[in-house]
Amino acid sequence: MSTTRVTWLHTNRRALRLGLIVLLPAFAGSLASVSLASGGWVRWSGAAASIPLAYLIFLCGYLMFQPRLSYADEHLHVRLRQGPAIQVPIDVVECFFLGQGPALLPRPFGNRDKLEETSTIVVRLAESAEHWKQFDVKPTWGLWCDGYITIRGTWCEPITNELLKHLNDRLIAAHRELRGQTQRGTKVEQPIHEQEVG
Q1: What range does the domain containing 16 cover?
Q2: In whole angstroms, what is the distance from residue 28 CA to residue 32 CA?
């Protein structure tokens, strides 16, 4: 059993890098105003601005290393809301396929009627897995209902056919590993049982 977390699907690092590109110069400017400005109010305003900017920089850096999907301990870790990932037993995950859905991006004032679409990754869960049918998740990141997990392409790495194939290959390998462990467990128990009976 692998206890090391393996990333299967990254977050949207492009957007987070862009955020850092915008935030870092603003943070440097606020620090410069604190150290170089002669007026007291300029220093205080620079200090006040630097605190939320530092928080946003930390948040972007933190989120860059929080994958949308990862695998460890025979569970698919799904990160579609704040806080710890939802850990789904890998044996109830059936497949990944391509979907399409609303991007849920902020719309410019002139394009209120135009609905932007994005590719999605849909994770199908076993119909018998009643406990995993529905969870509350952050709508801009995805949707989870009726045994399907939808991950919006807006907030994950670019979705390609190659990526989907890679996800399904990893899922097949995880299922094989799980079956192999179950079979080895059965083989180990059988001789012990026979010795006890004998």
Answers
A1: 11-64
A2: 6
pTM across the whole model: 0.72
Give all strands of the β-sheet with 148-152 in edge-to-edge order. Answer: 93-102, 117-125, 148-152, 142-145
Looking at the structure, do residues 56 and 102 belong to the same domain, yes or no? no
Angle between the N-to-C axes of helices 13-36 and 40-64, in degrees from 0 to 180, rounded to the nearest 10 = 160
CA end-to-end span of the chain: 32
Nearest C-alpha neighbor of 67 from the set 137, 122, 13, 139:
13
| Region for residue 5 given its phi and psi (left: phi exceeds 0; alpha: psi -120 to 50; beta: otherwise) | beta
Total Cβ atoms within 10 A of residue 167: 20
- Residue 191 resides in a domain: no
Number of domains in the chain: 2
- List, for residues 50-78, the tens digit of each pLDDT value: 888 777 776 666 667 789 999 999 999 99
Residue 44 and residue 117 in one domain:
no
Q: For residue range 25-36, list pLDDT tens digits in order.
A: 777 777 777 777
